[in-house]
UniProtKB/TrEMBL annotation:
This is PadR family transcriptional regulator. Gene3D superfamilies: Winged helix-like DNA-binding domain superfamily/Winged helix DNA-binding domain. Transmembrane segments: none annotated. Residues 16-89 form the Transcription regulator PadR N-terminal domain.
Length: 89
């Protein structure tokens, strides 16, 4: 539906930045947190999230880093940059 697509386009980036304000997260963690904290309103799959993350990264609002997770597996975590924090202020 067009309204849902427009909502995702407008609210999605801000919601991701707000989640990253809490601390670094990896992709799947962001998908789960978005769904949970918005009661499914911003329920997006990874195929929607990763282009959004790439866009935020290209704007200099977030930065990726490879880190070892609690399970010992390497994951790409995303965190806010100073520019990203400023955008939220």
């Amino acid at each position: 539906m067009r309204i849902e697509r427009e909502l995702m386009r407008g609210a999605g980036p801000v919601a991701v930045l707000k989640l990253l304000e809490e601390g670094a997260k990896y992709g799947y963690e962001l998908v789960e947190a978005l769904s949970e904290q918005t009661s499914g309103v911003l329920d997006m799959g990874q195929s929607t999230l990763y282009p959004l993350l790439y866009n935020l990264q290209s704007q200099g609002l977030i930065r990726p880093s490879w880190q070892e997770s609690e399970s010992g597996r390497k994951r790409k975590y995303y965190s806010l940059t100073a520019k990203g924090k400023k955008r939220l202020a």
